Amino acid sequence: MKNIISLFYKNLFLTNRLFAALACSVVLFLFDFFFPWMGIIPELVFWALIVLVIIDMLLLYKPAKGVFARRHAPERLSNSDNNELGVYIENLYTFNVSVGIIDEIPFQFQKRDVWFKTALEPRERKLINYILRPTRRGEYEFGDIRVYVKSPLGLIRRRYNFDQAETLPVYPSFLQMRKYELMAISNRLTDIGIKKMRRIGHSLEFEQVKTYVTGDDYRTINWKATARQGNLMVNSYTDEKSQHVYSIIDKSRAMKMPFEGLSLLDYAINASLVLSNVALLKEDKAGLITISEKLGAVVPADRRPAHLNKILEVLYKEKTRYLETDMEMLYATIRKVIKQRSLVVFFTNFESLNALQRQLPFLRRIAKYHLLLVVFFENTELKTLSEMPAADVEGIYIKTIAEKFAYDKKLIVKELSRHGIQSILSAPQNLTVNTINRYLEIKAKQKI
């Protein structure tokens, strides 16, 4: 009995309307002191208010279960994307109610305003949708759903607590991966910045002999087949398949730097996931290596249907470390794991030319055996500083230093090119598009 009374008081909340009515009652009692002719009017008003409060309590507390609520959430959330969640609410009362809903979202979002207000007619159901954008991978713990119900009288609120505690994993951006996949299937990649690359010559992978139609390259005419058939026949070629594409992700402290809530490592992970998916759609084999001061995950190149999920599960767990990358170990791993010439996309970051010089000998060794593409990041904050006009001497110093760092990035690109190493210098938000563009360009030019 004691627990029931305790729960009753814990879930009972007074509204502003009740406080306003009590204030009016107090004012009437004050007026009664100065104007005796008011008689028992203040008392009548007060007791009428008490009766209304009791009626309101009976309306809200008579049914054991007046409303029902549950959370609609996906099995996993996509990092750096807008994920849609919802709260299903159903009114089991026989009268109209107004409700306020609090969904206890994970602390990582640092939001205290997830409050939804709505009105429900008897037996009405609603689904209230909202958006969450996580910026870190890992497990996110959701709490209960709390619903505050108010009757048409609106003097008190009754709180309902629904146990909806659950833990949802936040994976690398699989929503972005699906978007690029759908664009690739429907040949609409140009809508999101993916360029169509003009093919130089034709692929060496033979597909079939077909009848000549206007527009076919006359250099591909098969004269023997033409003589047999009596019609012009041409050889048809297709893109070379089963080429190996490896994403190598640097997990050292250089990738800890944040941009727009995400670390450089998260940008690299999202881009490598999309690249792997596009490579599999092109019928190439995708692989993955993660590295820091010690070797991380190694996923040999493959193109089986479940291979992308394997890469996704590996990327989900990766975190930045605080020491420099062991490039000698990376070179030894590449020589051991990658047995044929492949496209090796190395996601890393260089802030100065000296940082590149320390790794350049190993990059040159890798480039001897594979087509190496080094992907590193443009410091957009410094670029913004270098473009701002200087207002004083301190501003001139800051602008000069920012310009020097930006110039160093361009020198890094030239230095890599001088040693025959391809590179991409990209702003973090454009990393995925720029990486896919370069992969398609390399495929079109048959450089692998």
UniProtKB/TrEMBL annotation:
InterPro entries: DUF58. It comes from the Bacteria. Keywords: Membrane, Transmembrane, Transmembrane helix. Residues 208-373 form the DUF58 domain. The chain crosses the membrane at residues 12-38, 44-61. This is DUF58 domain-containing protein. It comes from Mucilaginibacter sabulilitoris. The lineage of its organism: Bacteria, Pseudomonadati, Bacteroidota, Sphingobacteriia, Sphingobacteriales.
